[in-house]
Amino acid sequence: MTTENHKLWGGRFEAGLEKWVEEFGASISFDQKMAEFDLKGSIAHVTMLGETGIITQEEARQIKAGLDELLDEYKAGQLEFDISNEDIHMNLESLLTEKIGSVAGKLHTARSRNDQVATDMHLYLKTKLTEVIEKLHHLRQVLVNLADEHTYTIMPGYTHLQHAQPISFGHHLMAYYNMFTRDSERFEFNQMHTNLSPLGAAALAGTTFSIDRQRTAQLMDFSQPYSNSLDAVSDRDFILEFLSNASILMMHMSRICEEIINWCSNEYRFVTLSDTFSTGSSIMPQKKNPDMAELIRGKTGRVYGNLTGLLTVMKSLPLAYNKDLQEDKEGMFDTAETITVAIDILAGMLDSMTVNDSHMAESTEKDFSNATELADYLAVKGLPFRQAHEIVGKLVLECTKAGYYLQDVPLERYREISELIEEDIYKTLESKTAVERRNSLGGTGFDQVKWQVEEARKNL
Ligand code: ARG
Prior knowledge:
460 residues, Fumarase C, Chain B, domain 1, Fumarase C, Chain A, domain 2, Ribonucleotide Reductase Protein R1, domain 1, two-stranded antiparallel sheet, two-stranded parallel sheet, 19 helices, binds arginine, cytoplasm, Fumarate_lyase_fam, arginine biosynthesis, Argininosuccinate lyase, Arg_succ_lyase_C
């Protein structure tokens, strides 16, 4: 069953699409998220058409007034879109026609949906990038504050998830601060490639009308127009960069969330999440679950998926526009929405959690994470480090069998092991001393952590 064709592009068609085929091709269900940007792009375009005399000033004024009204109505939630108008571009054009009559038909002069949709995507992402960078700024601030507060809080540092050497909790947090700073810088770089205007590339080859692309770029607050029309309508690198930056960000968030999940388990009890960021169990009354941290970890999967999805869509696409490109949107929207809320959740969770600092520090007292201190102690006194390592290793084995730790070994036993060992060994073996003395640049020593915090504050 076919119907008559009333599409904006219907001129060369005798029959219309069947409803279910039309639905398959339509993007209005999701691209309506770009309505505001589509209208702003159209306002810039029509302003330029009027200024260059491609249409009259009066026509431009009427069209612009109509677009302004549509923008207000959109913001007030009053616009209704229709699937038979396929996408946001044709929906808005047909709403404009209803409003101002046939003069609306002049808006699409010297433009195509191909440069129009690319413009919308750039405008959308420009806004989102600013938002993401701001939210990351807040998260980094939260981390620095927490690191400042916990510069002197001692925790076990791990390798292979085994106690390795005691560290400052502030140092641990500052590692994440650095990751999120690099994430932010990657999004800033991403802004450069998003800040280009495709408008005026038209369908693929530019236009015979004497348009002013610099002017529309300026009106939309882009740094400059794309210099190649084919590239302008088919480039989605700016979205791929976004998705890949978002994937790296999610990987970082997933890592800290995994740590938080561990830290609030009964085995660690390093932190207690606030009630506002935890949930209970429908069957086990005692449960307090770190659901939000788990969800961030889980949502990392969908963000990676969106990156893989678009990379696959783009692979082998010939120039210039192909309808495959309509598949670029949902993953971008989903990623932007996922990361913006995930950053806020993580910041809120960190900001409101209780750090059980004494418990954290205690857990470095009942382990062998001071073994390196003993080996270094001997090495400083002239014993080759390899030999020191061997001696300490044997002593650790002896302690393990006897059920005590290096700090419990009596001085007589130490003197038997090596004449180099003196009374000051006990102070050396304390976690606090171990942390304090790791004062090499970028180490966990308290002074180094304080320096990191100060530097971060200067940058924020
Ligand atoms: N909805 C389309 C998209 O998202 C807009 C561009 C359509 N252009 C075309 N020649 N069919 O890509």
